[in-house]
Records
---
Amino acid sequence: MPAALTGAECLKARKLLGWSMRELRARSKVSIDAISRLERGEGHLHERTLDDLRAAFEAGGIRFERGRVRLP
């Protein structure tokens, strides 16, 4: 099981892909408020929400490896 997505990883992945919060929202079905809170390190998101974000990033080509966020 992969480690939970952190706010820093979310922001970095989003920037690497050139996605706005609105684009990430459309691809993950996670609210902009939840994305914003995660990236600011505020509050706790459900595991399913984090999984939805990770899946959207991976579908976009992002790879999460040993604490690194990268495109292949």
---
Amino acid sequence: MIVFELLFAALIALVLGGLLVLGLDRQPFAGRDVALFVVLFLATWAGGIWLAPIGPPLWGVHVVSFLAGGVLIALVLASSSTPRTRRTRGEELRRSRTEREVIRTLDIFFWLLVALLAASIAYRYL
């Protein structure tokens, strides 16, 4: 059953991530899109196993619970995204110190979020 939950979470995360990448006018397969998939995948999986079972089971998995968790997180991510701006190489090199500190802080937040989602998934199965 864990395998089917993993597969449904991955499928839902791929579809929602693809819609977000296309809808937010971003180039596919960029590094931030991998991070988007990781967060969507883990949040969909965690939401699916922690939410109350919704709908009929499909191969022992209540898919609607996974879909609800994934859509909720996708909406939060979409609402918090900013429009993409293109920067030249010179502009990338001249990033302010404050911008670099903000990016470093967001990197730390990303890894904390991944760790917490992974821990919540592991705790559910223990």
